[in-house]
Amino acid sequence: MWYNKFMIWILRSPLHGMLDKSTLLVTVSGRKSGRQITTPVNYVRDGDTLWVTSTRQRAWWRNLRGGAPLTVRLGGVEYRAAGEALESESAVADGLRLYFKIAPQVARYFQVQLDASGQPLEVDLARTAQSRVAIRIDLQGPKPNDL
User: Fold this and answer.
1) Domain containing residue 110
2) Is residue 4 over pLDDT 90?
3) CATH number of the domain that residue 98 is part of
4) What is the pLDDT of residues 35-52, one digit of tens each?
5) Average pLDDT, whole number, for the chain?
6) Is residue 147 part of a domain?
């Protein structure tokens, strides 16, 4: 995807501040190839935990099955982190519920309606969880060369 290269360039440049509030770079090692895979993703932050969602068709997140180390570039700083892909529909729904609690304006993008109290409708969550995965990323601190 051509725009991924553009987004990676911006997020690694001094212009990263334009996108830092909602987009970060995730770098994972391919389980089979060992090759570094960097992809820009939207996220929400809950303390030192970042939540990301991806379609099930994408491949990068599969390297996080069962948990794996990764690197996150956030706010112009590289962080060591641990990531885990959550694939069961109930775990994805729970992750999405938290995601929409933090960023309710995003629910519309996922075609998930919120009720009067701001909670996502369960039928919409269940439908969305069928086509998506949730990724939990726990920040462990800046990489030593970024201190």
Assistant:
1) 2-140
2) no
3) 2.30.110.10
4) 999 999 999 999 999 999
5) 89
6) no
